[in-house]
Amino acid sequence: MAYRPLFSRDVFAELDRLQREMLQSFDISPSIRGLSRGGYPAINVGSTPRSIELYAFAPGVDPASLDVQIEKGVLTVSGERKADSVPEKASRHIDERFAGRFRRVVTLPDDIDPNAVQARYTDGVLHISVARREAAQPRRITIQ
Amino acid sequence: MNDTTLARQASRATTEPALLPPVDVIEDANGITLLADLPGVPKDRLNLHVEADTLTIEGEIALPTADGMEATHAEVGLPRYRRVFTLSKELDAAKVSAELTHGVLRLRIPKAEHAQPRRIEVRVG
Fold first, then answer.
1. B20 CA to chain A: closest CA distance, Å?
2. How many CB atoms lie within 10 A of CB A56?
3. What is the CATH classification number for the domain harbouring B33?
4. Residue B120 domain-assigned?
C-alpha cells in the first residue's frame, strides 16, 4: 500500500487529499462518533420541517446485506461489500475501492418518529427518510 | 515500467469541479476490467467516451430530494464524478462494454487480437 502514495502522479488524487485535509481542519465540531469524511459509506444529511433525509453512498452492496436500525435516537447503517474475486493469472493495477464490513452511526434529533422511517436503495445510494413527530412540526398560532 | 498499465492523465482541462471516483483496475490475458464507484448516478446521467486513446468517465448524481430540504451535513460535496484514463495501444477501444449496477460501473476493455497472448513453440533443431 505504501507504494502508491510514494509514487503517485495523480494530481487529482493529490488535490482530493488536500481538499479533505482542509475540510477536516475547518470542521471545528466533529461528532463524538466520528462523522468524518472519506469513510464508507459517505453520508449526506438534509432536513426539512417534516423529516430528516439521509443519503448513504454505498455502491455495489447487496441490498439484502444492508441493515438500518434506530435505537434511542441513534441511526445505524451497516452491511457488507464483498470484494471482487480476481481470477487467476490476473493482476490488479489499481485497488482503491472499499471492500468488507462497514458501519456508520448518525445521531438523530430528538423530535423524530422512529416508527415512520422509509429506506430505499437506488443507484447505489441508500436513502433513509425519518419523519419528525407531528407535535414538533411548526404550526402557526392565530392571535385572537 | 509495464506498458500495459492504464496511466492516468492529469493534464486534461477540466471544466467543472468533480469528484474523483475510486476505481479498481484488473488485467487478465484478454483485457482489462475497470470498476468505478459512482453512487447516485442513474444510467442516463452516465457519460463514457473514448477519444483517441483517452477514456473519460463522467457521471452526474441525481438524488431524490424532499421539498424545502436544507443540507445539514455533506460528505459528498459535488454533484458529479469525473476520471480520465489513457489507454495503451494494445487495448481495443472500439470494443469497450459497460455495465452499471447499484452505482458500480464495470468496464471491460478487450485487448486487440494481435495483442492476445500466444504460445510460441520452441523447436529443438
1. 7
2. 28
3. 2.60.40.790
4. no
Report yes or no: B1 at the A interface, CB cutoff 8 Å: no
As a whole number of angstroms, the distance between CA A82 and CA B7 comes to 27
Report yes or no on B32 lying in a domain.
yes
* Residue pLDDT, tens place only, A102-113: 999 888 988 888
Q: Do B102 and A57 touch (CB under 8 A)?
A: no
Range of the domain at B16: 7-65+73-112
Question: What pLDDT is recorded for position B75?
Answer: 86
The ipTM value here is 0.77
**Residue % of chain A over a pLDDT of 70:** 78
Mutation for testing the B interface, residue in A84, A123, A129 having most B CBs under 10 Å: A123
Sheet holding A100-107, edge to edge: A67-71, A74-81, A100-107
| Per-residue pLDDT reduced to its tens digit, B28-50 | 988 999 999 999 999 999 999 88
SS3 category, B45? helix
Residues of chain B with pLDDT under 70: 1-14, 115
Chain A residue closest in CA terms to B25:
A94
**CB nearest B39 (choices: A45, A46, A125):** A125
Per the structure, the count of domains in chain B is: 1
- B117 burial type by CB count under 10 A (0-12 exposed, 13-18 middle, 19+ buried): exposed
Burial (0-12, 13-18, 19+ Cβ within 10 Å), B1: exposed
In a domain, B123, yes or no: no
Which domains does chain A carry? 35-83+97-136 (2.60.40.790)
**Residues A26-84: pLDDT tens digits?**
554 555 555 444 578 999 999 998 899 999 999 999 999 999 999 988 999 999 998 88
